[in-house]
Amino acid sequence: MSKRESIEINSDILTLCIEPMKKTHIVYKTNINFKLLHRYVPYLVKRGFLSFNEEKEVYQTTSEGLKWLKMAKALLIGDIAN
Description:
The chain has helices at residues 6-16, 23-30, 34-46, 63-77, and strands at residues 50-53, 58-61. The protein is mainly α. It has a single domain (6-73), classed as Orthogonal Bundle (Arc Repressor Mutant, subunit A), CATH 1.10.10.10.
């Protein structure tokens, strides 16, 4: 089993959080541990790719996150269009 790169983990989180997700769901559905969650989620929030709804305690991908996700997926599959 090979390790996933940061771009893959970020992509997995952003893809999952297109629909609002709680931390526990992110951990289980992206197959990461809470240590990695606490490393990646704050990074994505700080850059404006994820938003946090305090009332519902869920994370959701922002429009900027969707743009980043599109570019990241192009890099991962090696299909970068001009």
